[in-house]
Amino acid sequence: MPSLGSWTLLVLTVVAAVVAVELLRRLLKSRRVNGRFSLAGPLVERCTWPGFATAGVVAFNTVYVPGMTGHTGADGRPVPGTSGNAIEQVVTLLLIACVAWLVIQAAYAVTDVVLERLGTVEGEGNRRARRIRTQIALVRRVAAAVIIIVAMGAMLFSFPAVRALGAGLLASAGIAGVVAGIAAQSTLSNLIAGLQLAFSDAIRLDDAVVVDGEWGRIEELTLTYVVVRLWDERRLILPVSYFTTNPFENWTRYESRVIGHVLLYVDWSVPVDELRAELYRRLRDHPLWDQKDWSVQVTGVQPNGLVELRALMSASDAPSVWDLKCDMREHLVSYVREKYPEALPRLRVEETALPGGSERTGPRPGAGLLGGPRAPYPDDVAGSQADDGPPPKVDADADAGPAR
């Protein structure tokens, strides 16, 4: 017959284990410990429920014996197939699952502290910090997957029938591996590609990239897919293997600083020196300029007789250079319109005498078509180099742009 004292001891042991975990949780949350121990907060946040579950199961497994149910033979041992053995088997499975859960959450808590510190790194160390963040995020996912697989294997081998089949399963593991590899070829290629991207430093979290003509930042990088947050808050989700088989632009491969340019098309009478001085004066007072690169150059003459001016300016990152370019374009257009209206773009025509005394009006050599609507000013050419500024496929005259 089961002993009432044994069951009472079992219940008290489980309760004591849960109370001990609760006291430990309260200690870690206290100001004295939490203020000095940076790992206390993440441990409490992630390991509270796994800790309760593991402590309770461990305490139950320590005190419980199959004979407590009363189904024992003449020799005092439990009878096979009774409820006592079933409870023992269930407790063993729960113990393996709870320990695996606790180990995974503890590993995530430790890496959360590291990732949080790396997320605050700025300046020259930001690129290296983002690379380490990317690698840690992928490695801990791999570690969690390995722990889950080991735990599932341990659960299966806790059954005597499965242990008897162990030798046969190991003997056929080679053939099963080949079959599984063929069936999961795309999945395995993505897993390998994810590790390759993380440790080859091709892309990192928060990198500014241009993928398939879309500008955005790497928001999430897993072993199977990559999430790109586009400038208009859309999410582009691509398989990891895409980045190992297709070309893409990485604007922050070595640094986040970007050079952008603004194109203006004006008349030959434009005072370039005054325009250059005005740009520099305006850039010095602009908070987005990084105080490094700038210039104004005459880069060409258009077939319609307009002069092409290119103004270069640099900023700390791609969104900043986009806003800086828009501000400088607006300022230069206003400056030319107000200070030098004679330099505004225009088409010239001349009258020539025809036989018989009539006159003919026609375009001068090099001028645009007479009477036709003036074409809008060209702006940054989409699809050019990384210093072209905004995401490709975006009209530079539109009001939309990357979010600040």
UniProtKB/TrEMBL annotation:
Keywords linked to the UniProt accession: Membrane, Transmembrane, Transmembrane helix
Region: Disordered, residue numbers: 351-404
GO CC terms of this entry: membrane
Top-level taxon of the source organism: Bacteria
Database matches in Gene3D superfamilies: 1.10.287.1260, 2.30.30.60
GO biological process, one term: transmembrane transport
Compartment annotation: Membrane
Domain Mechanosensitive ion channel MscS: 187-253
Xref: Pfam families: MS_channel_2nd (PF00924)
Protein name, as recorded: Mechanosensitive ion channel MscS domain-containing protein
